[in-house]
Specification:
about 450 residues; alpha/beta; FAD/NAD(P)-binding domain; 5-stranded parallel sheet; 22 strands; globular; binds flavin-adenine dinucleotide
């Protein structure tokens, strides 16, 4: 398929007759179908979809609804916390990323009305569509844990890198640790499905390595609390991480869920679970609890689909994914199961794979091509195989590249090397390659 813009780019770059001729053919295969497309959310998935669609459609009529003026490269949060990136390196004005021919409504969607093909916004009333691309990401619910709020992040040494400011606050706290000389550092996972499930482990391992590099490791006890019974699936990655935690003396406490924090007394209380669950549980007098002291707490907030999605007829109502209110969507086609004029991808999608930007890189071309097919009155053809990647930074200079698809099938990009070993080359890719690939490749619809 693709495309007008790439044709022009190829010509402008003077890539030679063959390429231009090939692009010329692509140019004429652009779809001439016309319809109004509304994209809800201008994050990683929204911008990528806008680029693909404005490329593939000659008569494009695309609107993005996105309230924020600044776009964050969220995978960079971990690297702000570790001091590898400066905060200003991962922000970009939204205006610079939205393709020129795409309209931007700076507003928030409050309600979905799929029966009448409209969304209700805060300030612009109802906006009608023929086709909807639903990509508002996931909501991090910092306030769900008693004693914590988004506003209190960084205060009393209670931190979370699942927030831009929070990641910088963590970095400041990290720099103070060598001077503190000793203490107990407590890290948590969460019980819901979460974006970048590797991030809680990355920050634990990076902190441990930072202490070693500053000759301060001996004074610190590190504890990791998680809802699950393993550190990660597929097992090859979980086993490797378990080995690293054991070798580096980081204690793991399985089947624990953070329920409250007393920041002034520096105490965190965990619910002891009999079985891991994604269900929101309530605490009563019969609940088994474990309260621990901390000098620094890094917690992972519970996550779910944004409220307007959870409360819509699009949310999953059965199985474990119903707890997050994620959108019910065909796992392969990325088309909503009840309304085939709605395409869903990114973190909000109730897919059986991990929520990452790497997953979106593979989902977007499938989602865009299938949307164009549906617009043309054809059956959607392309299939997404569940590919996701989580580069787990295990120390400054090494990354365990976890790549997998549906059913936890291993999907290594380089098949002939052992994926279960952390490597320097993945660190180089993560710290130098992935950010430019994100801004100038994925978000432009070029990869
Ligand atoms: C700490 C951390 C580390 C990560 N590390 C990695 C990594 O190493 N590799 C990787 O691949 N991924 C990583 N990720 C995950 C990756 O950033 C996300 O999976 C990706 O950004 C999801 O894209 P999205 O478009 O679905 O959601 P987002 O990028 O979050 O965008 C959603 C957009 O929708 C907008 N929106 C929300 N509600 C509304 C509304 N009501 N109306 C209109 N617009 C709305 C938001 O403002 C936002 O701009 C990490 C994430 C975090 C937080």
């Amino acid at each position: 398929m693709i495309s007008r813009r790439k044709f022009i780019t190829a010509g402008a770059l003077g890539l030679g007759g063959f390429v231009v001729t090939e692009r010329a053919w692509d140019y004429f295969s652009e779809s001439k179908v016309k319809a109004k497309i509304v994209i809800v959310g201008g994050g990683a998935a929204g911008i990528t979809m806008a680029s693909y669609l404005s490329d593939m459609l000659r008569n494009d009529d695309i609107t993005i609804i996105e309230p924020n003026e600044i776009h964050h490269y969220q995978p960079g949060y971990t690297f702000i916390a570790s001091g590898t990136f400066r905060p200003e390196e991962i922000v970009m004005p939204e205006r610079k990323l939205i393709p020129g021919n795409v309209k931007w409504v700076k507003d928030k969607v409050q309600e979905l009305e799929p029966e009448t093909n409209a969304v209700v916004t805060s300030q612009n009333g109802k906006i009608a569509y023929d086709f909807l691309v639903l990509v508002p990401g996931c909501e991090t619910d910092f306030n769900q844990i008693d004693g914590i709020s988004k506003e209190s992040l960084g205060k009393s040494n209670v931190h979370s890198i699942y927030d831009f400011i929070g990641s910088y606050e963590y970095h400041k706290a990290l720099e103070k640790l060598p001077g503190m000389k000793e203490g107990r550092l407590v890290f948590t996972d969460t019980y819901t499905k979460l974006k970048c499930g590797g991030a809680p482990k990355k920050i634990t391992l990076l902190t441990e390595d930072y202490l070693k590099k500053h000759d301060s490791r001996n004074g610190y006890q590190l504890d990791y609390y998680c809802n699950s019974t393993n550190l990660m699936t597929p097992q090859i990655f979980g086993d490797r991480l378990q080995t690293l935690y054991d070798e580096r003396d980081i204690s793991i406490h399985y089947k624990r869920r953070l329920v409250s924090v007393d920041a002034s007394a520096k105490k965190a209380t965990f619910q002891i679970l009999t079985e891991p669950t994604q269900e929101r549980l309530s605490v009563d007098s019969s609940t088994e609890l474990d309260t621990v002291d901390f000098d620094l707490l890094h917690f992972t907030p519970p996550m779910g689909a944004p409220g307007f999605v959870k409360n819509s007829p699009l949310a999953i109502t059965e199985g474990s994914l119903r707890h997050g209110g994620w959108v019910e969507v065909d796992n392969e086609m990325l088309v909503q199961t009840k309304y085939n004029n709605i395409i869903v991808l990114g973190d909000v999608a109730g897919l059986g794979t991990s929520k990452t930007g790497a997953a979106i890189r593979m989902q977007a071309p499938v989602a865009a091509a299938n949307l164009v097919s549906i617009m043309e009155g054809k059956e959607p053809k392309l299939k997404y195989d569940g590919y996701s990647a989580c580069p787990i930074v295990t120390e400054y200079g090494k990354v365990l590249m976890c790549e997998f698809g549906y059913e936890k099938k291993l999907m290594p990009t380089i098949p002939f090397i052992d994926p279960g070993i952390e490597r320097g080359m993945w660190w180089i890719l993560k710290s130098h390659g992935l950010k430019p690939m994100y801004y100038y490749g994925m978000l432009k619809g070029l990869m």
